[in-house]
Amino acid sequence: MRLEDYPDNSGMATANQAPGRRTPSAATAQLFSLALKREGRLLLQMGIGKPLIAQAMLLAEEHGTTVEEELLASGDINEAIYFAALAERLGLDFMPDIDPNRVQDIAGIDTQIIRPEMLRIHHASRPPITVIVPSLSRLDEMAALLERTPPLRQSIAVSTPSAVRNAAWQAGRRRRVTATTQALFETTPLHSARITFWGKQGFYAGVMLGALVAAAITLPIVSLLMLHIVLTLFYLANFLVRFYALGCAFLQQRSGRRPPMEDETVGPLPVYSVLVALYKEESVAAQLIAALDRLDWPRSRLDIKLICEEDDVETIAALRALPLAPEYEIVLVPVHLPRTKPKALSYALPGVRGAFVTVYDAEDRPHPGQLREAHAAFMAAPERVICLQAPLIVTNARQSWLSALFAVEYAGLFRGLLPMLSLTGLPLPLGGTSNHFRTAELRHIGGWDPYNMTEDADLGMRLHRLGYRSRVILRPTFEEAPVTLPIWLGQRTRWFKGWLQTWLVLMRKPAQLARETGWPSFAVFQVLIAGMLLSSLCHPIVIGFLVYLTWMMLQDSTHVDSWLAFWLFACDIINIFGSYAVFIALGRNRMGASERRAVGRNWVYVPFYWLIMSLAAWRALLELRTNPFSWNKTPHSPVGEA
């Protein structure tokens, strides 16, 4: 039977055929390249059914891949059985597993975690063996070589891509994790948070603290007045930035929201990588895999890496117990300080196969079309746009007042403030998940800083100062917010500590930073990061100032400086109650009706929410001194569980 007859076979459509997938026709078969037809004939000779081959040929033509890749990605054939059959056809031994202890960590081994093709296995009592991963397209070439040189059969064996990749990961694990934790610091130490106070920063911090203490003792009234004025200005600038974002949000709402961009790319799609760092996440493993399985992207062009600490046996066991599709790979990170999410992401970065890569958290449920929109946005954007941020939407706002205000905060940030910054070309303090990157440029700028507790904000600022830009997309990622105070406080303390680290890193050479980013971006950075940190730390103090000034005015004081007191009183009113109002308005403006109903009247707790943010900021300041690289893990539960 001829291969050209496959599409006419009435039994070709299978029960598990994807919705909307085209069924090959005779006309379509004529378009198949000679290489695809040749692969099909070889697969037929190996005993693989015609319907599977025909469907794989169609997908290979559509995706720009090979029939072999599509078959392996479909999950319809077992990888080990398939490569055992290739080994038998070549007359070679098949090695389903490779002992990584017999693989030397030599130069070039990292190429095998991206494109597994060949490994050298050493034995104590016999000559080494070269393990190969044969491809169907070069099978005849390999068979001819073995026919010409029969002794080669004694020194060559066949294995699977998974086995070669796993052995390469394990063989280079120590060297790779050491490089991960040191690379950014050794190549561009100015951008690394490994040293908290750089150069004279510690000296200047000590001098300023000493001066403040001395001034408070010798000139208490003047010191309080100057502190009040400084805080007032920072608060006011922060308020105005968010008020401007609120105005932009209102204008966008009146003009009509832009629909999500559709991916109309003609031709094969690139490989897209997905990184998920997991630690003690066994409870949400099944939910995560179900969410990632729904991503609308060809399975043969997906590269999903589930990154686990190698001593996290519960999470690893939970993942291995699930029916993972061929595009999934579990990457084990050796135990090595610091034990942080950015270290895990940076460890996996050398193995990323995709031209684009995105990051998700373990509890995330990304919109199925998010990769499509991100790809379309990258294709339409200038090359210097190397990062896209998808909005994060909290879905458990009803569970507690904390999760309700968290939902309001996220709506204002990801659907209000960040779009405004993106439209004006200003730096984006990225969220910790749903960032999409051009892989080559991400590697070029050094990836994530393993020592920064908010690697997202740090990376967003770093890529901006290096001349790159970030934008936002619309298709969201859904996640759950903390519902109890201890969990919320631990997470927020880590965030504040990371923002402190980011500010210290960027302010090592302020003049250079201003030249690299431009003065408008430098000013916005100070308002968003320094202003947010200072306002959080000093929020109780500002409330105290307001109470004191109110008491003074009620006493009908007639001091010479009463005009200044009235001006400060007015600014405090605007700063405190205006900030509360814009926080609520910006978030609720970007929410849908169902989201607003879920939040209900919990917005009345905003003053208390800001006070506990101040507590988290002070805890972060203490931790930055005593334990700068500790990662306060946020526990997660499956959706619907408390």
TrEMBL record:
The chain crosses the membrane at residues 203-227, 233-251, 522-551, 563-583, 603-621. Residues 1-24 are annotated as: Disordered. It is a multi-pass membrane protein. Residues 357-553 form the Glycosyltransferase 2-like domain. It is found in: Membrane. It comes from Rhizobium herbae. It comes from the Bacteria. Keywords: Glycosyltransferase, Membrane, Transferase, Transmembrane, Transmembrane helix. This is Glycosyltransferase.
